[in-house]
Design goal:
The protein is α/β, with parallel strands linked by helices. It has one domain (8-175): NAD(P)-binding Rossmann-like Domain (Rossmann fold, 3-Layer(aba) Sandwich). It is 46% helix and 14% strand. It contains five helices and five strands, in the order E-H-E-H-E-H-E-H-E-H. It has helices at residues 17-28, 40-52, 67-81, 104-132, 162-175; strands at residues 8-12, 32-37, 56-61, 86-89, 136-139. It has a five-stranded parallel sheet with strand order 3-2-1-4-5, sandwiched between helices. Helix 4 (104-132) runs parallel beside helix 5. The longest helix has 29 residues, at 104-132. It binds nicotinamide-adenine-dinucleotide. The site of nicotinamide-adenine-dinucleotide has 24 residues, from helix 1.
Length: 179
């Protein structure tokens, strides 16, 4: 039996490079993979590839910089099979610039996609995982959160805040006996 047989996994940013590889691997391990991305065509292409390899996947378009879209995505993914076992918070963006050249929008969308989305998606999925007695959440960070280049302001810096949020999710599940 494959390791993820019967499980449902959501991978954000799964139309992109790393996300599509994660989605294909989870599918090869037996999971039904929800391939979600703001880019509808990219997500559909990844689903076609998975199905061509004999796997099962569903494409869902969602802009995870939006809180309601995060909760809607989890609701829609859960409805597929009445379960949600794995959440991979992979989607991320990198707006390049320095303190003066970056716009307010660059700053806001970087926090919304790279950090806030994980907060909302974790809060949407945790009650379902706790009720089911377990689950797994993977948050993708970036080495750019730790590097301080002299001339640019890395907009992936919000990912510096990931480790505490990961510990918090785990502690929440442990307290309820789900991890
Ligand atoms: N590629 C690297 O060298 C590298 C290094 C360190 C960390 N990372 C991290 O790995 C993750 C994936 O990186 P990648 O190289 O595959 O990036 P990528 O650009 O190939 O893929 C990112 C995907 O996220 C999607 N996305 C962007 N904004 C979104 C939104 N608002 N809602 C939903 N989806 C959205 C994009 O459409 C894209 O398909 C990112 O979190 C990135 O920060 C990448």
């Amino acid at each position: 039996m494959k390791r993820f047989e019967g499980k449902v996994a959501v991978v954000t940013g799964a139309g992109g490079g790393i996300g599509s590889a994660i989605a294909r691997r989870l599918s090869a391990e037996g999971a039904l993979v929800v391939v979600t991305d703001v880019n509808t065509e990219a997500a559909a292409e990844v689903v076609s590839g998975i199905e061509a390899e004999g796997g099962r996947a569903a494409a869902m378009t969602a802009d995870i910089s939006n809180k309601a879209a995060c909760f809607g995505l989890i609701e829609q993914a859960f409805a597929l099979r009445g379960r949600l076992d794995v959440l991979v918070n992979n989607a991320g963006i990198n707006r390049r610039g320095n303190l003066l050249s970056l716009s307010d929008e660059d700053w806001d969308v970087s926090f919304a996609v790279n950090l806030d989305s994980m907060f909302h998606l974790c809060r949407a999925v945790l009650p379902l995982m706790i009720a089911a007695g377990g689950g797994a959440i993977v948050n993708t960070a970036s080495q750019w959160a730790f590097i301080r280049p002299p001339t640019t302001l890395p907009t992936t810096r919000p990912k510096l805040r990931l480790p505490p949020s990961r510990r918090t999710s785990h502690a929440t599940m442990r307290r309820t006996g789900s991890a």
